[in-house]
Amino acid sequence: xxxxxxxxxxxxxxxxxxxxxxxxxxxxxxxxxxxxxxxxxxxxxxxxxxxxxxxxxxxxxxxxxxxxxxxxxxxxxxxxxxxxxxxxxxxxxxxxxxxxxxxxxxxxxxxxxxxxxxxxxxxxxxxxxxxxxxxxxxxxxxxxxxxxxxxxxxxxxxxxxxxxxxxxxxxxxxxxxxxxxxxxxxxxxxxxxxxxxxxxxxxxxxxxxxxxxxxxxxxxxxxxxxxxxxxxxxxxxxxxxxxxxxxxxxxxxxxxxxxxxxxxxxxxxxxxxxxxxxxxxxxxxxxxxxxxxxxxxxxxxxxxxxxxxxxxxxxxxxxxxxxxxxxxxxxxxxxxxxxxxxxxxxxxxxxxxxxxxxxxxxxxxxxxxxxxxxxxxxxxxxxxxxxxxxxxxxxxxxxxxxxxxxxxxxxxxxxxxxxxxxxxxxxxxxxxxxxxxxxxxxxxxxxxxxxxxxxxxxxxxxxxxxxxxxxxxxxxxxxxxxxxxxxxxxxxxxxxxxxxxxxxxxxxxxxxxxxxxxxxxxxxxxxxxxxxxxxxxxxxxxxxxxxxxxxxxxxxxxxxxxxxxxxxxxxxxxxxxxxxxxxxxxxxxxxxxxxxxxxxxxxxxxxxxxxxxxxxxxxxxxxxxxxxxxxxxxxxxxxxxxxxxxxxxxxxxxxxx
Length: 657
Description:
By secondary structure, the chain is of the alpha/beta class. It is built from 25 helices and 18 strands. The strands form three sheets. The chain has a seven-stranded mixed β-sheet. The chain has a seven-stranded parallel β-sheet with strand order 14-13-12-15-16-17-18, sandwiched between helices. Strands 8-11-10-9 form a four-stranded mixed β-sheet.
């Protein structure tokens, strides 16, 4: 562990305690071997003035929702120091009361809630307090002889047994520092939890942390190994989709299943004893909120229905019943991590962000487990202690506050023809409704077009089966399956009457509009059969029912994909896959319509361009976003009982009606 302290940078904060606190907090947060995804907390004691101008001693402590890697000054709510210290002297203090009292002591009631460790930070008699959940020290504390090892390595630290975070922990530390002068120690180590360092000087507190972690790393290097087996194995993507479906059904909503098949992940998953060592518990109980107590262990070739997931659910319910004091509400019983034998590690979550957090924790966990085994054993806390944190009253209180999930939360979608117009708008609509969306287009600009949250652009030539298959496999490899496909790609060339039709216009139009759609469906249907409320959406055209002169190839191709969709609806209904067609007309904000073509068509009717845009019974212009919203809605549970439908979005067309 290397110190990242820079004297020149730090000098710019020498007159601003809170700015210095931000600086060193970010130094700690920059290493995920110290803290991960909102873990750890820091504080500084300082003076400020209240609303009336009175000078006041306060504790600036990390607030809820902030990450040390990116924290800023607003991430440190100020609370009254004297009164916070008084809370540690109470005999008892419930967690809800502690939360209320800490908020009552805040100078700014609109600031984020103070860390649950705020009382502990207040009572430690030093200006700067740093707290991390460093992998190396926690790994040693999970050793059967952890207390002896830590006493040997850290004679200049106060080592305390594990106790529940919050007020109870604050009381324990308060009693300990009354009997042991904390100034004689470089830090306090909490078994199975983490380490505190502190000093009047920010640099000393930070570099003490680095030194203590380095000692742990050196011990591991001398007595064990931090290098672990690796492997490279092929995976069956249909099996991955089956696993995802089973987990989604267990949780009651669509889940992403993001596979980590790196050599170290597959090496861990290939260990003969992985089912034993991976299911002893988390490296620190804080992780249980993200990952649950243990992962699901899944066979290399899971049987139909993936019985390992059903067993995990049954075991979780038994774990809850065995530890429930009688008044708790069970959380969903689905796993958050899967160890897929030989395949790697799978993170299950409702969003890409959640999965990335889970995957990071899983990566650190497998390192700690294997490292711990190499130095004499790996022993997590008893399940009762893990349960106590998982069902902490402060976590239970959040159950009633969860927001309504978006219609496509956890779903995976592919949209073709996504570089502009209806395709791009559909990607945006599906992403806004919670899906992760991959937009395909032959135009390389699609990558730059789809950079918003939940969207990815991918270059794909839909007239090339190999390109289609590669794109679909890439999506499934990344997210674990497929739920929604939107067949939107198409070209439109008008003005050629049948007797004048060139072979190029005919062949190219049918190849892109019709044949490519068939090949795309052929590639995606096996995964859609394993999707969650799976849906195929075909973007047709008013021309299928009311063709116009000079558009034979386009009209035939749209009639063809409409018929293809009808057959697909008949074939796939038994597999729960819905197939519906949306027929837009006169959607002019797309790449199909140039200003020249628009002007020519308007002139043919003796209309201005603006009049031509709203030439329908309702007299309103149809935009790409209108079609996109309809497509997203048809893919949702609103249309859960609809398949084989053909839905116009044309403002009302007398020829169709």
